[in-house]
Write a structure and sequence with these properties.
about 160 residues; 4 strands; alpha+beta
Protein backbone atom coordinates (compact mmCIF):
# COMPACT_ATOMS: atom_id res chain seq x y z
CA UNK A 1 0.00 0.00 0.00
CA UNK A 2 2.84 2.40 0.83
CA UNK A 3 4.49 1.64 -2.49
CA UNK A 4 1.26 2.44 -4.34
CA UNK A 5 0.96 5.77 -2.53
CA UNK A 6 4.59 6.52 -3.40
CA UNK A 7 3.95 5.79 -7.07
CA UNK A 8 0.83 7.97 -7.03
CA UNK A 9 2.81 10.81 -5.44
CA UNK A 10 5.55 10.54 -8.08
CA UNK A 11 2.93 10.46 -10.82
CA UNK A 12 1.20 13.55 -9.38
CA UNK A 13 4.50 15.46 -9.20
CA UNK A 14 5.33 14.50 -12.79
CA UNK A 15 1.89 15.55 -13.99
CA UNK A 16 2.20 18.91 -12.20
CA UNK A 17 5.67 19.43 -13.70
CA UNK A 18 4.43 18.75 -17.24
CA UNK A 19 1.20 20.73 -16.90
CA UNK A 20 2.50 24.20 -17.98
CA UNK A 21 4.23 22.68 -21.03
CA UNK A 22 0.76 21.86 -22.35
CA UNK A 23 0.07 25.60 -22.27
CA UNK A 24 3.31 26.24 -24.19
CA UNK A 25 2.08 23.98 -27.00
CA UNK A 26 -1.35 25.63 -26.93
CA UNK A 27 0.36 29.04 -27.14
CA UNK A 28 2.19 27.88 -30.26
CA UNK A 29 -1.14 27.19 -31.97
CA UNK A 30 -2.74 30.43 -30.72
CA UNK A 31 0.18 32.60 -31.86
CA UNK A 32 -0.06 31.15 -35.39
CA UNK A 33 -3.84 31.64 -35.51
CA UNK A 34 -5.23 34.46 -37.64
CA UNK A 35 -7.52 35.81 -34.94
CA UNK A 36 -6.03 37.14 -31.68
CA UNK A 37 -9.16 35.94 -29.85
CA UNK A 38 -7.66 32.44 -29.94
CA UNK A 39 -5.17 33.73 -27.35
CA UNK A 40 -7.89 35.00 -24.99
CA UNK A 41 -8.12 31.90 -22.76
CA UNK A 42 -4.32 31.88 -22.41
CA UNK A 43 -3.80 35.57 -21.56
CA UNK A 44 -4.61 37.67 -18.50
CA UNK A 45 -4.61 41.16 -20.07
CA UNK A 46 -5.34 42.92 -16.79
CA UNK A 47 -2.25 41.36 -15.19
CA UNK A 48 -0.03 42.27 -18.15
CA UNK A 49 -1.33 45.86 -18.08
CA UNK A 50 -0.77 46.07 -14.32
CA UNK A 51 2.80 44.77 -14.66
CA UNK A 52 3.57 47.29 -17.42
CA UNK A 53 2.00 50.09 -15.34
CA UNK A 54 4.18 49.12 -12.37
CA UNK A 55 7.33 49.09 -14.53
CA UNK A 56 6.43 52.47 -16.04
CA UNK A 57 5.61 53.91 -12.63
CA UNK A 58 8.95 52.76 -11.27
CA UNK A 59 10.85 54.28 -14.18
CA UNK A 60 9.15 57.71 -14.12
CA UNK A 61 10.40 59.97 -11.32
CA UNK A 62 7.76 61.44 -9.07
CA UNK A 63 7.94 65.19 -8.54
CA UNK A 64 6.46 66.00 -5.20
CA UNK A 65 5.79 69.65 -4.50
CA UNK A 66 7.00 71.13 -1.24
CA UNK A 67 5.25 73.79 0.71
CA UNK A 68 1.68 75.01 0.74
CA UNK A 69 -0.78 75.87 -2.01
CA UNK A 70 0.50 77.42 -5.19
CA UNK A 71 2.48 76.03 -8.09
CA UNK A 72 2.99 72.78 -6.20
CA UNK A 73 -0.72 72.03 -6.31
CA UNK A 74 -0.67 72.38 -10.08
CA UNK A 75 2.08 69.77 -10.21
CA UNK A 76 -0.02 67.41 -8.08
CA UNK A 77 -2.99 67.90 -10.39
CA UNK A 78 -0.79 67.34 -13.46
CA UNK A 79 0.77 64.21 -11.95
CA UNK A 80 -2.61 62.65 -11.10
CA UNK A 81 -3.97 63.35 -14.58
CA UNK A 82 -0.87 61.94 -16.27
CA UNK A 83 -1.23 58.81 -14.17
CA UNK A 84 -4.86 58.36 -15.26
CA UNK A 85 -3.94 59.06 -18.88
CA UNK A 86 -1.12 56.52 -18.64
CA UNK A 87 -3.49 53.81 -17.38
CA UNK A 88 -5.96 54.52 -20.18
CA UNK A 89 -3.16 54.50 -22.74
CA UNK A 90 -1.95 51.13 -21.44
CA UNK A 91 -5.46 49.72 -21.68
CA UNK A 92 -5.62 50.79 -25.32
CA UNK A 93 -2.07 49.74 -26.23
CA UNK A 94 -1.88 46.34 -24.55
CA UNK A 95 -4.49 44.21 -26.30
CA UNK A 96 -4.73 40.61 -27.45
CA UNK A 97 -3.51 41.76 -30.86
CA UNK A 98 -0.46 43.38 -29.22
CA UNK A 99 0.30 40.20 -27.26
CA UNK A 100 -0.01 38.06 -30.39
CA UNK A 101 2.16 40.45 -32.44
CA UNK A 102 4.78 40.62 -29.67
CA UNK A 103 5.00 36.83 -29.45
CA UNK A 104 5.18 36.51 -33.24
CA UNK A 105 7.93 39.13 -33.49
CA UNK A 106 9.91 37.48 -30.70
CA UNK A 107 9.63 34.13 -32.49
CA UNK A 108 10.63 35.65 -35.84
CA UNK A 109 13.72 37.25 -34.30
CA UNK A 110 15.18 33.95 -33.13
CA UNK A 111 13.50 31.16 -35.09
CA UNK A 112 15.02 29.70 -38.23
CA UNK A 113 11.75 28.15 -39.41
CA UNK A 114 9.48 29.96 -41.86
CA UNK A 115 6.89 30.88 -40.81
CA UNK A 116 8.40 31.38 -37.37
CA UNK A 117 7.00 29.02 -34.78
CA UNK A 118 6.63 30.03 -31.14
CA UNK A 119 7.77 26.61 -29.97
CA UNK A 120 10.99 26.85 -32.02
CA UNK A 121 11.86 30.16 -30.36
CA UNK A 122 11.68 28.72 -26.82
CA UNK A 123 15.21 28.65 -25.42
CA UNK A 124 14.29 27.98 -21.79
CA UNK A 125 11.07 27.11 -19.97
CA UNK A 126 10.87 26.20 -16.31
CA UNK A 127 9.20 26.98 -12.99
CA UNK A 128 10.15 30.15 -11.14
CA UNK A 129 7.93 29.12 -8.24
CA UNK A 130 5.07 26.67 -7.75
CA UNK A 131 2.62 29.07 -9.47
CA UNK A 132 4.92 30.94 -11.91
CA UNK A 133 6.44 29.50 -15.06
CA UNK A 134 8.92 31.46 -17.16
CA UNK A 135 9.50 30.98 -20.88
CA UNK A 136 12.53 32.62 -22.49
CA UNK A 137 12.29 33.18 -26.22
CA UNK A 138 15.76 33.56 -27.71
CA UNK A 139 19.24 33.45 -26.22
CA UNK A 140 20.33 35.60 -23.29
CA UNK A 141 20.83 39.21 -24.27
CA UNK A 142 18.15 39.31 -26.95
CA UNK A 143 15.41 37.43 -25.15
CA UNK A 144 11.74 37.96 -24.53
CA UNK A 145 10.34 36.58 -21.28
CA UNK A 146 6.82 35.20 -21.17
CA UNK A 147 5.61 34.63 -17.62
CA UNK A 148 2.76 32.20 -17.01
CA UNK A 149 0.82 32.33 -13.78
CA UNK A 150 -1.41 29.64 -12.36
CA UNK A 151 -4.92 31.10 -12.19
CA UNK A 152 -7.41 28.61 -10.88
CA UNK A 153 -6.86 25.51 -12.99
CA UNK A 154 -5.25 27.26 -15.96
CA UNK A 155 -1.80 28.60 -16.76
CA UNK A 156 -2.12 32.06 -18.35
CA UNK A 157 0.30 34.73 -19.56
CA UNK A 158 0.55 37.31 -16.78
CA UNK A 159 3.60 39.22 -18.00
CA UNK A 160 5.51 39.77 -21.22
CA UNK A 161 8.92 41.42 -21.01
CA UNK A 162 10.68 42.35 -24.21
Amino acid sequence: MTRLLGYLLVLAVLAYGLWPYDTVFRLDDAVRATEPEDLAPLVDLAAIQANYAARLGASVPVFEPRGGPGPGQALLWLQSNLQRLGDAALDQAITLQWVQDSLRQAAERVSASQPALFIDAVDFAFFESWNRFVIRLGPLGSETHVVLGLEGKDWRIVDLVR
